Amino acid sequence: MSTVNPTDTHHHDDHHHGPVTLADGVWPWMKRWIGTTNHKDLGTLYLIFSFTMLFIGGLMSLVIRAELFAPGIQFVDPAFYNEMITLHALVMIFGGVMPAFVGLANWMVPMMIGCSDLALPRVNNWGFWILPFAFTMLLGTLFLSGGGPASGWTMYPPLVMQTGNALPLMVFALHLAGISSITGAINIVVTILNMRAPDMPLLKMPLFVWTWLITAYLLIAVMPVLAGAVTMILTDHFFGTTFFDAAGGGDPVLFQHIFWFFGHPEVYIMILPAFGIVSTIIPAFARKPLFGHDSMVYAVASIAFLSFIVWAHHMFTVGMPVSAELFFMFATMLIAVPTGVKVFNWVATMWRGSMTFETPMLFALGFVVLFTIGGFSGLMLALTPVDFQYHDSYFVVAHFHYVLVPGAIFSIIAAIYYWIPKWTGVMYNEKLGQFHFWWSAVWINVLFFPQHFLGLAGMPRRIPDYAVQFTDFNMVSSVGAFMFFIGQFVFIYNMIMCMRGSGTKATGRVWEGARGLEWTVASPAPYHTFETPPKIDPREMA
Amino acid sequence: MKKISMLSRWGLGALGALAMAPAHAEWTLNMGRGVTDLTDDVFGLHMLIFWICVVIGIGVFGAMLYSVIMHRKARGFEAAHFHESTVVEIAWTVVPFIILIAVAIPAAGTLLQIEDSSDPDMTIRVTGYQWLWEYDYVDEDVSFFSRIDRESDRARQLGSGIDPASVEHYLRNVDNPMVVPVDTRVRLLLTSGDVIHSWWVPELGGKKDAIPGYINDMWFKANETGTYRGQCAELCGRGHAFMPIVVKVVSQSEYDDWVAEQGGDAESEGELATGQPSSGEVSADEATSSEESPTAGNATEGRTEDGREDQPEEAEESIVGSGEEDEGSEPATGDEPSSEDTGSGDGSSGASGGGSSEVSEDELMSEGETVYANLCAACHQPDGSGMPSAGFPALKDGAITTGPVEAHVAQVLNGKGAMPPYRGSLSDREIAAVVTYERNSFGNSTGDVIQPSQVAEQR
Q1: pLDDT at residue number A321
Q2: Chain A nearest C-alpha distance from B451 (Å)
Q3: From which residue to which does the signal peptide run (chain B) (predicted)?
Q4: Which of A162, A245, A460 is opposite residue B308, by nearest beta carbon?
C-alpha cells in the first residue's frame, strides 16, 4: 500500500490538544465542546443538533397527523395547528436537514480531500453555536402569548403580518440560521478549493465533495435573499414600509418571487448532498466504480443552474402572464433531464456489479426508488395546466415529502450507517440496521403514498379538518406516521451503542468495496487526520 | 423478533380499524374529470404524464430489480469494471428530452386556452375575506356573501361532540352558493379584502389566487348542471379549512328565475329548483357591496399593518381612524340605502338599514346570538371566554364589550389585528344585534340596546 501514513502513528510534541474526555472533569469536557474548532467534533455536534431537531419536528408532525386522523377537530385549536405546520417545516428544513448535511460535510470533506481540518476552524465553531440560540428563539415563540408563527414556513404576506410577538423572533431566528449556513458554506468552498491533497484535481474529487461544493455556492447565493425577504417583512411590520402591502403601493406577490428565488435553490441544497452520498455508497456496495463520474458532476451543476430559473413554478396560481407560465413550465421540465441522468447512472453502477446489501446500501437503494417516485410527481407538477389542480393540494405534500424524507433523510441515515464505523471504530448492529430499513421503508410509504390520492381527490394542504370523503386515506397516513416515528428509536439506539463503543471493532477499510481517502486512516479516525498531505493511490479515486 | 411481530400486528390492527370508517368515506384514487372541456383536457394531460412516469418507472425499477436479484455477491457474481460510455450518456439525455417536448406541446396548448378569458358571457367578481367569499354578479346587480353552513360550523368546533359524518357535506356546504347557468362562459375576477385566498372547485378547473391589490381572472364553462364543491386552497389563517365554495350550475331558465329572486322582490323569495334555501341577506347587501371590494382591500391593508396584538381589545382609535379614512376616500362607499328593508324573508340574517323603526331588544338579542354563533364564537368561544393564549381576548368583562358603545361598534366595523372587518359582510342591523348581544351576554350586563341607526351613523 503506497497510501498514507495513518496519522495516529504521528506523535507531535507540539499537539497537546487531543480530545478532553469526561474523565478529565465535567467543566473541561464542556469547554472542549463549546470551544472546539476540530472538524470532527463540530461534525458530531451538528449531527446531534440535527437529530434533536428532527425529533422535535417529528413530534410536531405527529400532532398534525393525530389531528388529521379523523374529520372534526379533536385535539388542537386550528390556530395551534397552523403553528405546528409552520414550525414543523422551519425546524425540519433549517434545523434538521441542513445542519445534518453540514455535519456530514464537516466530518467527511477534510478526510475525503486529504486535509487536516476546514480552512476556517473558528468560523466553523461560531457557525455551529449560533444554531442552538436560533432554534431556542424560534421554538420559544410557542410560549408567547399570541403563540408561534402560524403563516406557514413560506411566510406569505399579508397573512404573516397577522403574526403576533413571534414575528420578529422568527425573522431573527432565520437570520441566525442563515448566517450559520453561509459561514458553513464559505468554509466548505474555501477548504475544497484550497486544501485538497496535491494529487487531487477537481474532476477527481469524490462525488460527495463535488455536490457539497455546488451546494455551498447555492447557499451563498440564496441565503442572503431569504434574509432580505424576511427583513422586508420585519420593516413592513414595524417601520411602516410597504414592500408587500398593496395599500401602500407594495406588492404581496413580490414576496413570493423573492421567497421562491431563495426557496427553489433551497430544495436542491437539501438534495444535492444526498446525491453525493448515494453516489458514494452505491459503488462501494456494488464493488464497481461509479458509472459516469464526470457526467454526474455535470448533471449536478446543470441542476444547480436550473434551480435559479424555475422558482415561479411554486406560484403558477398567482396570475402570472402566460408567457412567464410557459417559460417556467419548460425550464422546470428541463430539470428532469439531468436528474434522470443521475438515476440512470446509479442503475448503471449497480448493473453487473457484485452487490451486497448492508444497511447503508439498503437506504441508498430505498433513496433511489423513493426519490424517483418523488421526481415523477415533480415532473407531473411541472405541467402548468395540471398544476392548477395539484397546486396547494395534498399531492404537493406527498411530492415534497417523498423527496425530503425517503430522499434527503434516507440519504443522511445511509451516510451515518456508512461512516459511523469510521467515526466510532465499532460496527453498528447490522440486524437492527436491516430492521430499521425495512420498517422505515414500509411505513414511510403508508405515510406518504395515500397523500397523492388525497390531493387528487381535492384535499387542500394546511387544513386541520377535512370533508369526510378524505377520511380513509388520512387514517392510513396517520398510522404510517406514528409507526415510522416509533421505528426511528431503533436507529437512535443503534447509534448510541456505537458512540459508547460497544460493538465489534471496525477495520480501517470497514467496507470491502469502499474507496476514498477516509478509508486509509484507522477506525476510529484519529482526532487529527492528514496533518501532512497524503500521497494518493489512484485506486482510491474515481 | 418477537417484538417486531408484535409491533406489526399492532399496525395491522390499526389498519383494520379503518374498516370502521364513516359511511361517507371513499377510496378515490384519481383526479376527477370535472365538467368543463378544459378539465377534461387537464385530466388527459394528467393521465398522459402519469403513464409516461409509469413506463419510465417500470424500465428503471425493472432494470434495478433485475440487477439487485442477479448481480449480487451472494450468487457469486463478479463485478464488471465498465464505468463510462459516452454513447449511453448521450442517449439517456436526448431521449428524455424528446419525451418532454412531446408532453410540453399539448401542455402549452391547454395552458393557452385556460389563460384566454376573453369574451365571457358573464362576469362574477369574487372577493375572499377571512373566512368567507363574496360573489358580485357584475352584470346582474346581484351580490352576496357565502360562508360555511351553520351545521358544519357547529360540528367543526373543538370538542363539539357532533360526528362530522352526520353532517351533510361537512365543511363543503355554504349558506349562499354561487349560481351560474350551464353552457355559459363564466369569468371570475378574483381579489381579496385581507390576506391571500385561493378559489378552487376541482370540477370546474384549477385554482386561482385571490390577492389583495390584484384582480386575477379565470373562467369556466360547465357542460353539466349540478352542485360542485371546493374550498379555499391558500393558507389564510385560523379559519382556512372553513371557507368552502359551492357552485350550483343550473339551466338558463332556472338561473334567470334565481336572478329575479335576488333582485329584491321579497314576495318571490323562495327555494331554488335544487332545493337550497336562499337566505335573505343576499339582497340585503347587494346595494353597497358591488363597489366595495377594492375599498375593503385598502382598508384591510391599513389594518394589517397593525398586526395581531397582545390585547386587540384595547383598540387605538388612530388605527381604526386611518382605516376609516381609507374607506371614506373611496367615493362608492356610502350608507346602506334603507330600501334593503325589502330584502329579508329570514329573520336571522335579515337586514334592516338605517330606517327609523326601532328594533326590540329581544329581536336584537336573538339575531345577535345567531350572528355571534356564526362568526364570532370560533375565536371568542361560545361562552365569550376567548382564547387569550392564541391572542383572541375574552368578551366576558372585556374592555371593549363593557366599554364605550362607539368603540365596540367601530371594532366590529373595522376589525383589528386578526379580527376581520365586518363592515362589508354584515348589515347595520346585524352589527347592532351582535353588539347588543355581546354587551348583554356571558355575564356582561351593560343593558345597552344598540339600534341599526347608530351603526349606520358610525359607518
Answers
A1: 94
A2: 32
A3: 1-25
A4: A162
Domains delineated in chain B = 30-55+87-116 (no CATH), 122-278 (2.60.40.420), 307-458 (1.10.760.10)
Question: Residue for cell digits 331554488?
Answer: B272
Residue B9's pLDDT is what?
A: 46
Which of the residues A41, A236, A266, A518 is marked catalytic? A266
Q: Which residues of A touch B25 (CB under 8 A)?
A: 468-472
- Tell me whether residues A319 and B208 touch, CB distance under 8 A: yes
Q: How many contacts, defined by CB atoms under 8 Å, are there between A and B?
A: 372
- Out of A7, A61, A183, A279, the active site residue is A279
**Alpha-carbon distance B174 to nearest alpha carbon in chain A (angstroms):** 13
Q: Which residue of A has its CA nearest to B43?
A: A386
CB atoms within 10 A of CB B133: 27
Q: Is the separation of the CB atoms in A183 and A142 below 8 Å?
A: no
> How far is it, in rounded angstroms, from Cα A470 to Cα B200?
17
Examine the pLDDT at B417 and tell me if it is beyond 80: no
Question: What is the third-level CATH fold of A42-245+252-540?
Answer: Cytochrome C Oxidase; Chain A (1.20.210)
Average pLDDT for residues B301-311, to the nearest whole number? 36
Give chain B positions within 8 Å (CB) of A458.
Answer: 32, 200, 202, 230
Helix/strand/coil (H/E/C) assignment for every residue in chain B:
CHHHHHHHHHHHHHHHHHHHCCCCCCCCCCCCCCCCHHHHHHHHHHHHHHHHHHHHHHHHHHHHHHHHHHCEHHHCCCCCCCCCCHHHHHHHHHHHHHHHHHHHHHHHHHHHHHHCCCCCCEEEEEEEECCEEEEEECCCCEEEEECECHHHHHHCCCCCCCCHHHCCCCCCCECCCEEEECCCCEEEEEEECCCCEEECCHHHCCCEEECCCCCEEEEECCCCCEEEEEECCCCCCCCHHHCEEEEEEECHHHHHHHHHHHCCCHHHCCECCCCCECCCHHHHHHHHHCCCHHHHHHHHHHHHCCCCCCCCCCCCHHHHHHHHHHHHHCCCCCCCCHHHHHHCCCCCCCCCCCCCCCCCHHHHHHHHHHHHHHHHHHHHCCCCCCEHHHCECCCCCCCCCCCCHHHHHHHHHHCECCECCCCCCCCHHHHHHHHHHHHCCCCCCCCCCCCHHHHHHHC
A393 by DSSP, 3-state: which?
A: strand
CB < 8 Å to A236, chain B: 305
Q: Do A457 and B32 touch (CB under 8 A)?
A: yes
What residue has cell string 358603545?
B405
Flag if B100 and A351 touch (Cβ within 8 Å).
no
User: Which of A326, A476, A479 shows the shortest C-beta gap to B108?
Assistant: A326
Cis before A19? omega within 30? no
Q: Is A268 a catalytic residue?
A: yes
Nearest to A456 among B30, B53, B170 (CB): B30
Q: Which of A264, A399, A422, A528 is catalytic?
A: A264
More confident residue, B277 or A102: A102
- Asked if the model's pLDDT at residue B445 lies above 80, the reply is yes
Q: Which residue has the higher pLDDT, B157 or B250?
A: B250
Least Cα separation, residue B318 to chain A (angstroms)? 15
Residue A461 annotated in active site: yes
Q: What is the ipTM of this complex?
A: 0.91
Could you say which residues of chain A have pLDDT below 70?
Answer: 1-18, 542
Q: Is B2 on the interface with A (CB under 8 A)?
A: no
A463 and B67 within 8 Å at the Cβ level: the answer is no
